[in-house]
Design brief:
The chain has 359 residues and is α/β, with parallel strands linked by helices. It has three domains: 125 residues, D-Maltodextrin-Binding Protein, domain 2, CATH 3.40.190.10; 109 residues, Helix Hairpins (Orthogonal Bundle), CATH 1.10.287; 81 residues, D-Maltodextrin-Binding Protein, domain 2. The chain has 14 helices and 13 strands. The strands form four sheets. Strands 7, 8, 9, 10, 11 and 12 form a six-stranded mixed β-sheet that branches. About 3% of the residues have low confidence. One of its GO terms (molecular function) is ligand-gated monoatomic ion channel activity. It is a multi-pass membrane protein.
């Protein structure tokens, strides 16, 4: 009987343990949220975005109760974790050496990889920008070479034809040379009016060689001018920031509490911190800053949803960023989140969330 009572008591105790919720499930987690679309966005009072959706998948899988607490920027969100005010920080939180070394917090494994880019003004080329290539070294040298070649061919044709064909190429040098250059020009352009034509063998030989040379000359000159125009116009499309070294000394807009502040300084730029990306972009449009540094997915998402031909992404990237969630040191959440993130990655659910929101 004693054995039966012991077994019954153990069974009851086991049921009580199984029915008792874990500490994480017993209370609603305080989750800080901060960042910009497409990672964090609030529509009609409901938070959504890549970071929010990934967290919801984790919370649903582990049956975690939680409520979201908004923070104005990433740094304040991280600080709230370190100060014990919240249990978790979510958003596009870059994992940086300085943040990892901070006491009181830990990062989960990354769930998103992004690059840091620069949004700059796009300046449509004016009239001078369009005709400027005509006065460049490439164009002027090509035109000079062409005129010199026409002069030489005109002289050779006149010398060969002046005696036996004075009607088309008069013996007088100026008039005869003019007709010779005219013949060379209409041959070059394949117009062939027929008002001037060589009759001598020497003249026809010179004309034949010139016809062959003309084909190659026109192609070469056309390609050179097209290349000069393309390069010139492509350079006028962007502001002075064409490569990372161009950031040196420039005033660059950044969002307060993001890695853009330190990244701007690392390239020699002068950061101009503002609370939101919208305000930073407003500074570009008012010509107050030379560009805005932020994560490329955030800038691309803005460009997609707010088409603006006056702005464009600079043709370079500054650095690679990895995003993770932030938890207090020694928090049981870290291991739990890491396991779920691995499951989401292996099942391609994180990619599916990202593709759905970004595309």
């Amino acid at each position: 009987m004693g054995g039966m009572n012991l077994k019954r008591r153990l069974s009851v105790a086991a049921l009580i343990v199984m029915a008792t919720p874990s500490p994480l499930q017993a209370m609603a987690l305080r989750v800080g949220v901060s960042g910009s679309p497409p990672f964090v966005d609030k529509k009609a009072g409901v938070y959504e975005g890549i970071s929010v959706e990934v967290w919801r998948q984790i919370a649903h899988a582990e049956k975690l109760e939680y409520f979201l607490i908004p923070y104005p920027n990433i740094d304040s969100n991280i600080k709230a974790v370190a100060d014990g005010k919240i249990d978790l920080a979510i958003g596009p939180i870059s994992i940086t050496p300085d943040r990892v070394a901070r006491n009181g917090i830990e990062f989960t494994q990354p769930y998103f990889y992004a690059e840091e880019g620069v949004l700059v003004p796009s300046q449509p080329p004016g009239l001078w920008a369009r005709i400027k290539p005509l006065f460049g070294v490439a164009a002027l040298s090509s035109i000079t070479f062409l005129l010199f070649t026409l002069f030489c061919v005109g002289n050779l044709i006149w010398l060969a034809e002046r005696k036996r064909n004075p009607e088309h190429f008069p013996p007088q040098y100026i008039k005869g040379l003019g007709n010779g250059i005219w013949f060379a020009l209409v041959t070059l352009t394949t117009v062939g009016y027929g008002d001037r034509a060589p009759l001598t063998k020497a003249g026809r030989s010179i004309a034949g060689v010139w016809m062959v040379i003309s084909l190659a000359s026109v192609s070469t000159i056309t390609a050179g001018l097209a290349s000069a125009f393309t390069v010139s116009l492509s350079q006028t499309q962007l502001s002075g920031v064409m490569k990372p070294s161009d950031l040196d000394g420039e005033l660059i807009g950044v969002v307060t509490g993001t890695t853009g502040v330190s990244l701007a300084r690392s390239y020699g730029a002068r950061p101009f911190p503002v609370p939101t990306l919208k305000e930073a972009i407003h500074l570009i449009k008012r010509n107050k800053v030379s560009g805005v540094i932020s994560d490329t997915p955030i800038l691309s998402y803005y460009m997609k949803n707010s088409p603006d031909k006056s702005l464009t992404l600079a043709p370079f990237r500054l650095s690679l960023q990895t995003y993770g969630f932030v938890v207090p040191s020694d928090s049981p959440l870290e291991r739990l989140i890491n396991i779920e993130l691995l499951r989401l990655e292996r099942s391609h659910q994180v990619k599916a969330i990202s593709d759905r929101i970004l595309k």
